[in-house]
Amino acid sequence: MSNVNIPSNYMGGVPQQSLAAPSEDGKIDRAYLSSIRAILKIGCMLFCFISFICLVTTLQCLSNHTFLASVCWLVIIMQSLIVISFVFRLKDKFQGVDFELLDFFATVHDAIYLLIASSVTIHYCKNPGQIGGGVMGIFACLLIAGDAVVIFLARRDEHINNSNNNTPR
What we know:
The protein is an all-alpha fold. It has helices at 30-33, 36-56, 64-87, 90-93, 99-124, 128-166.
């Protein structure tokens, strides 16, 4: 190992502890958790979980409910990863990745998947629990579509503000 790869503040494996109070620039973004985007994502995940519970506790219906159940879990996993990436400020650590654009496309993708799977489940399954799961999937789709609109409008306003600041006067 060469000297170039060793940072200058290397202390030979001794952990450094700070006695000062935690700074405002911590590792966790608490403001994101109370933003409208996080609230919409968490609401969508809750509706997906309710939809999943409604689907797996009823009788089978030609495996159409399995499609929505798997889509619900995929949406929960994807949206959880997006929330974690924003809460732990990974966009500051990985400058080359546009997390806002990734969030937008993942959200639109999840909304389309939920809409298709919920519609198929409502149309083909006649059990009340499965229809309830499909309706909860539609509610989750509406929440996540609202999140996509919020992301789009925020990016559009950011782009308009940046272009107005770059114009010569």
